[in-house]
Each structure stands twice: as C-alpha cells, then as structure tokens.
Amino acid sequence: MKPCDVVGCPLFPCSDVAHARFTVPTLDVEPAHVRIVLISECAASDPADDYHAAGDPLFARTTVAAFRDAGADVASITDVEALGVYLTTAVKCAKTAYAIAPATVRECSRLLERELDLFADARAYLLMGDVAIAAVNAIAVRTRGQRVVPAGSTYKIRGGEFYFRGARAFPSYLQAGPSFFIEKRKREMIAQDIAAALAR
Question: 3-state class of 157 per DSSP?
Fold first, then answer.
C-alpha cells in the first residue's frame, strides 16, 4: 500500500506554502508492520532533503542520528523503518516562511487524518514539533471534541501521558532539519521521547 495513492490535495487552498513541493510518502508500506508514526513539520524546501530522497538527505540524516541517540542500532532511514516506524509530515507542502499559518495546519490535518487512518495498529505517535502537535490536536478536536496535547511549552508538557486513537502520543521537538545539530538540550529530549516510543 502506498500512502500517496490514498492521500491527495485536489484544491491546494493554502496560500503560505509551496504547492510544488507537495509530498506524501510513495514507498510501499505494510500497515500492520507500523507501530510508531513519526510526524514532523512539513515537506523539505529542497526535495533533495526529504526523508526518502536519493543520496544523503538532511531529513534522513538527522532522523537516523536521533534514533541512534535513543539507543537504536540504525544506520539508514530503511533501518529506522524496519523498526516499525512510519515517517511523515503534518503539512504536506514546504513552508515559504519561518512559521506556517494555523489555518494551513488545520487544513492539512485533514490529509494527515486520512493518512493516519491507514495505520490502525500504531502504538505510539511521535509529534515532532509544534506543527505536528497542532495538526494532531486539530484532528482530535474535529473527531472527539477535545485536544490530545494541552496548551503549553513542550518542555513543560512532554512528560505527561497523552493518548490519540488509543495509542500514546509523545509531544517532542522537531528532529528533521539543521536545528537538530544546534540545540543540544532539545536533541537529548528528542532521544528520550523516541526511546520511550520504541519501548511501547
């Protein structure tokens, strides 16, 4: 099953993202094998940096490093996926400014919702950054009337126990991109959150 065959955006209503960079995973996935869904912010501005781009893409490099920090014996994005991890983004297009408008996150959460429907057996959701947290909260508000993760700074709330669709949700920090190599304390917290998800 290829998620790109199920998830599409026919209208592209959002004005603050690069529609030419619309990206949904094209790999063939066995849904029953997925136990962790990792949701990062948005598609890379440069297609060469996407998780599954050829060569040494930035998103893959930082994600592999994050899983190694968490104690996983991985050397590639394929190794990460072999652990039962599915990698996707909350917003399917690349951003054009530093921040993504809340309305765009809410709109794209409808696509994310369809994508997550494919993985009914997931045991954990890694919500990597504010955009991923906001997107999952938008789904939860639409479907059950209340958010999954409460408002507040991530460092204050990340120790709490939150559940989404019967699985543990881990609010964390963005692991995909250059800031991963700069902010050492956040990198440590990312590793802790990944390790906790892998232990589910």
Answer: helix
